[in-house]
TrEMBL record:
Organism whose genome encodes this protein: Actinomadura rubteroloni
Entry protein name: Transcriptional activator protein CopR
Pfam families named in the record: Response_reg, Trans_reg_C
Superkingdom of the organism of origin: Bacteria
Presence of the UniProt keyword Metal-binding in the record: no
GO CC terms in record: cytosol; protein-DNA complex
């Protein structure tokens, strides 16, 4: 979220976090450029009129250097010409202020699904089906009543499957840059998720490596927990 109006940025970021998204905030174009070089993002919600580096210039930087990042330009400029010029800069979508927050959420989710590395809408593994758009998850046809963070952790693991995700990976993808790297929140959340997924166990932990969802190839492999 790149927005120089701090109150708006913080409110929107907190709302997106409540929807299960990991969100970092930058209040100017320079800070945003630094974050983009350090972290891998799926979507950038970008205000157009920014200090430091103008939003138009930052949009060009993103589209030229970060092929996998989708840009939602967020601005008070609402004329058709403004929208055309914003999209001409390489933005993938354009939303004018004031906006309805549910619409912003839907647009961010839509851009994430269009992102080059995104997979199919419904994620499947080991009897689990997860639909990120409708926020639904089942195992062997049984509805899973998951919290926002449990759902986000399961989605991250399914997207990475069959690879492992480390604790640091999950903190980055499900929480945000301010998450305490020494916290046990990932362990606690995965523990709750395991209980809700039920038997037989489907999330494997390998000490020093991380977590992954077991697949068909693992059915006859023992060990792990």
């Amino acid at each position: 979220m790149v927005e120089d109006a701090r109150t708006l940025a913080d409110v929107v970021a907190e709302g997106l976090r409540d929807q299960g998204m990991a969100v970092d905030v930058a209040h100017d174009g320079l800070d945003a450029a630094v974050k983009l070089d350090v972290n891998a993002y799926d979507v950038v919600v970008l205000d157009r009129d920014l200090p430091g580096i103008h939003g138009d210039a930052l949009c060009r930087i993103i589209t030229e250097r970060h092929e996998r990042v989708m840009v939602l330009m967020l601005t008070a400029a609402a004329s058709p010409g403004d929208r055309v010029s914003g999209l001409g800069l390489g933005a993938d979508d354009y939303l004018t202020k004031p906006f309805h927050f549910p619409e912003l959420v839907l647009r961010v989710r839509s851009l994430a699904r269009r992102q080059p590395s995104a997979r199919s809408r419904t994620l499947r593994a080991a009897g689990i089906e997860l639909d990120p758009l409708r926020r639904l998850a089942t195992r062997d046809g049984r509805h899973l009543d998951l919290s926002v963070k449990e759902f986000a952790v399961l989605e991250a693991l399914l997207r990475a499957s069959p690879a492992f995700l480390s604790t640091e990976d999950l903190l980055e993808q499900v929480w945000d840059e301010n998450a305490d790297p020494f916290t046990n929140t990932v362990t606690v959340t995965v523990g709750r998720l395991r209980r809700k997924l039920g038997e037989p166990p489907v999330v494997r932990t390998t000490p020093g490596v991380g977590y992954r969802v077991l697949g068909a190839a693992d059915e006859n492999v023992g060990g792990g927990r």
